[in-house]
Amino acid sequence: MDRMPRRIFLNWPRCRMELDSHVWLAIVHLLVVVPLFLYIGFVRADTPRWLYLAIFTIGFVILIYHGFKLVVRLKNRSGYAWVNAIHIAIVAPLLLYIGYHKKETPRFAYELLLMLGFAAGGYHLFSLVRQLDAHPEIQM
To answer: Could you give the CA distance from residue 45 to residue 66 in angstroms, rounded to a whole number?
Structure first.
């Protein structure tokens, strides 16, 4: 009896994508993070109060998680340490700043959040497209 493979593949006509952790990370960013950043960036001071607490908490978690991951990646001489550095230097401080100042947050912070939202959307969409592996010889 054949065992099911551990890898999950998404098959479309002429395309094949392995659903690994990088794909799931991109999907979560595209479905949760990007809409959250864009929503807050567009509605600005009309953002519900509970969402300010949520992004403050998210900013704190990002700071701790990516701080730990940065140390590990630097010790391992990983080429992906820059991802953690960006989250520590830009994303976490901005979320903490907006979450702390709430409705008194200056306009520039909301605009930076919009830029981060659009940048994250473009980066993660590009990441998904790059992982598509077109195989014209595959017949469905």
So the answer is: 28
Which amino acid type is present at position 120?
A: A
- Rounded to two decimals, what is the model's pTM? 0.83
| Three-state SS at 137 | coil
Strand partners for 18: 9
Span 49-97, pLDDT tens digits: 999 999 999 999 999 999 999 999 999 999 999 999 999 999 999 999 9
pLDDT of residue 90: 98
What's the one-letter identity of residue 48? P
Of 118, 126, 120, 131, give the one whose Cα is nearest residue 21.
131
Q: How far is CA 38 from CA 26, 84, 98, 113, 121, in A?
A: 16, 21, 14, 7, 10
In which order are the strands placed within the sheet that holds 15-18? 9-12, 15-18, 133-134
Residue type, 59: G
